[in-house]
DNA sequence: AATTTATGTCAACAACACTGACCCTTTTTG
DNA sequence: CAAAAAGGGTCAGTGTTGTTGACATAAATT
């Protein structure tokens, strides 16, 4: 009776597709106005959440090759959205930080996404929203969940530190 | 006290990114073995859920240009995964159907995604799973929600009809 | 001193999206 | 019935974002 039907999972699959499609389309208009694409957005986002991150660690999060990262990172550095600082302990490392300009763009990019989730929260309430987050966490590969936990925590710290 | 903090939404944004990334990576191995990519997967998936769909309607769901669709659709037709039938009422239309071969591949592709959600369901229970679906539905643009409802229902019908 | 690590860069290539133009067939409209 | 519109196919060119492979440099480690 309470057995799971396959069609339940098909619902879930469709919902993942359409929800992600609308969610990711939000910032596209802003990006295009700046001559950037989604790849630039991803870099901007994870540098924002992990100030001082190294190239190697960023590659690990994005799961792309360094040649692929290099192209968009060069765009962002040349246009003064991201700056590199040579590591204090290890002078081989290039630690990435948003500039004021980069931080401003990042805020603009996440604004529509925050608005979207704010409306969801308003519709379902804080408890259901927390439950949704727990569920989404379980959709992530189990071996990556703790890493994502750390990323989210670090990102939270980065926000409070800059009094954002 | 219970005011929404922006960091709550940042959590949600990160979770969307990582959950979708792992979710969509599931079928990649199978696709590569067949010489197909994610674009082929999307076409296969929506033809499976909407048997007899026209080119125009499929373009509407995928939100790509017909030139972009044509390339992958040609691959799938040439390799006998999808067949076109001339519309009975309107002979201009080319109605798309999966062949037996296409249906088999589609089943293989969704299997790991169904498994993923089955594990989520097992962890949180059917009630929380239903709540998650309602929440995901609210992440979709409000003007598209009813269309997605219809798509999901049609997809459910397509499954029961073929006794899948 | 030799090796490893972190990063950068050049070159070629592939998937997948786009625009613009043009074609054919079939249906609808005036 | 002729003209226009709708559905679909195709050619040509372009851009973004990913890939491999090879090689270079500076700094750290062994």
UniProtKB/TrEMBL annotation, chains A, B:
It comes from the Bacteria. One of its GO terms (biological process) is response to stress. PANTHER family: TRANSCRIPTIONAL REGULATOR, MARR FAMILY, TRANSCRIPTIONAL REGULATORY PROTEIN. It holds the Pfam family MarR_2. Residues 6-157 form the HTH marR-type domain. It comes from PS1 clade bacterium. This is MarR family transcriptional regulator. InterPro entries: HTH_MarR-typ (IPR000835), MarR/SlyA-like (IPR039422), Tscrpt_reg_MarR-type_CS (IPR023187), WH-like_DNA-bd_sf (IPR036388), WH_DNA-bd_sf (IPR036390). Keywords: DNA-binding, Transcription, Transcription regulation. GO terms for molecular function: DNA binding; DNA-binding transcription factor activity.
């Amino acid at each position: 009776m309470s057995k799971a039907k396959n069609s339940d999972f098909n619902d879930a699959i469709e919902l993942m597709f359409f929800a992600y499609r609308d969610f990711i389309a939000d910032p596209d208009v802003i990006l295009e106005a700046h001559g950037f694409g989604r790849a630039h957005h991803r870099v901007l986002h994870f540098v924002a959440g992990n100030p001082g991150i190294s190239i190697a660690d960023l590659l690990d999060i994005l799961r792309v090759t360094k040649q692929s990262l290099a192209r968009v990172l060069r765009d962002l550095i040349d246009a003064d959205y991201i700056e590199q600082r040579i590591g204090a302990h290890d002078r081989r490392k290039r630690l990435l930080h948003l500039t004021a300009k980069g931080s401003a763009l990042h805020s603009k990019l996440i604004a529509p996404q925050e608005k979207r989730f704010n409306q969801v929260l308003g519709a379902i309430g804080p408890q259901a929203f927390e439950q949704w987050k727990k569920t989404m966490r379980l959709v992530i590969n189990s071996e990556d969940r703790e890493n994502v936990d750390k990323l989210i925590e670090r990102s939270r710290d980065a926000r409070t530190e800059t009094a954002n």
